[in-house]
Structure formats: structure tokens, C-alpha cells
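S.,

As promised, the magnesium ion run. Input:
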Amino acid sequence: MENGKGRDDSQLVGLEVPRHIAIVMDGNGRWAAQRGLPRMQGHLEGRKATRRAVAACGDLGVEVLSIYAFSAENWQRPAEEIEGLMGLIEQAMREELDDLGRNNVRFIASGRLHELPSSLQQALAETQTRTADNSGLVLNLLVNYGGRAEITDAARALARKVKTGEIAPEQITEDLLAQHLYAPGLSDPDLLLRPGGEMRVSNFLLWEIAYSEIVVMPVLWPDFTKQHLIEAIQEYNRRQRRFGRAPNDD
Ligand code: IPE
Ligand code: IPE
Ligand code: MG
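Predicted complex:
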């Protein structure tokens, strides 16, 4: 790993590293099915890929990594898989805490966290508190997260403020709404990365990805390495972000 670092970095010379990368980690189930293994094995292997992605983002100087771990719609999966995933996330929180500290990672969790098992809520809160003073990569883990739920929750918070007279409806702007999302301090994702090949957003960060560059890769999440991340960043650099402006003629 250490040996590869110089070569890895040389592939990004002169390129812009996205400040915020958001990943829909997908393909764990297919990875397991291809090997005749239970889906949970795919999730366990996917956890290793998440560790690699966090380390790689730290190495490359990414500021924020948002990772979709469990969607609001994933409750529709079999109870056994849901329990397995909840346990896996909780275990990862406890086991990764020291490494997050060593790597100066600041952890936050986003989603309807109050609906999660209480032991998982505690583990997420503890990781958040214990890494709050770290100044490196921000790792935003999305658990029981839905983009529509997030916007709905922001709308409710704003409605409460209108009701108490704290704000007038006319004061609701895009900026104010954004301040009521789950992680208001973060910049919007520059790069939305989806391994596993599906060309859809699956209710991920609907507000925040308004102008993200989308890169879909065929690699299944458990097989995802730093090299895939570098390739995605190279692809990102081939895009021209216009935000509605006329194209630049080079
Ligand atoms: C992504 O892998 C992990 C979660 C959604 C929790 P999947 O479990 O969706 O894997 P596939 O898409 O079935 O291969
Ligand atoms: C999106 O993956 C959710 C997460 C990665 C946590 P899914 O596998 O649930 O998405 P769909 O169902 O294929 O759209
Ligand atoms: Mg999937």
C-alpha cells in the first residue's frame, strides 16, 4: 500500500481532487451471489471496501466523503439482512473508532437516526462525539437516509419556525432550506459515484446533488479499490461543469 502511494498520486498530477465525494455503495449482494455466498458475506466484504475508500480519500486530500450505508427504503429487505446490516454498522463504529482518531477523521451520521436501534444510535453518537475535534476528512455516513425524507424534515422544521413567528414564509430561501438539512455545514457533493452499474440515484442526497457530476462504475462495491477512486477522479476531470452557464470554448 505504502509503495503504491507515489504511483497513485502521480496519476492525479495536475488534476482537481473533488472536495466532496458521495458514494452509493452498491453491489454487495451481487458480489456474494456470484460466489454462492449469503448476501451478508457481501456486506462484510463491502465493509473492507469502505475502509479502503476512507483511507484513500484521506490520502488524496478529499474534504468530505458521504457514504450511503442504509436507505429509508432498505427496511423492505428481509429482517435477517436488516438485522445483519444494523449489527455490522454498529460493530464497525466500535472497531473503527481508534483508526478514525489516528487518521484525523471527523465522523458524522445523517438520516432519521432516532428510528434506528438504540444501541446503534448510541454507537453513532459516540463516534461523532469522540471524533468531533478532528480536522481531517469528514466522513458522513448516511443511515436510514432518504433524500425525500430529508427535505420533508427540513420543511417541517421551517414550518415550525413560521408557526412560532420566528421567520416569515418569504424568508424561506434555498439557502435557509439548506441550513435545515441533516448536515448543513457541508459543501454539496462534486462527484456522485455509484459502483455496481445502476444508473439511478435511489433517493440519495436529492437536494445536494443538484449539480454533482455522476460517475457510474461497473465494479461491485466489495471489489472497489483506491485505483477505482482515482479513475473516477480522472473521469470527473474530463467533465466541464457549467452550472447552467454557456460552454467554455477552449
Ligand atoms: C449495497 O449493496 C448495500 C446496501 C444497500 C446496504 P446491495 O445489498 O444493494 O447489493 P446488490 O445491489 O443487491 O448487489
Ligand atoms: C442504494 O442501494 C442504497 C444504499 C446503497 C444504501 P439499493 O441497492 O438499495 O438501491 P436500488 O434498490 O437498487 O435502487
Ligand atoms: Mg443494491
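The first helix runs from residue 2 to 10. DSSP finds eight helices and six strands in the chain.

- D.
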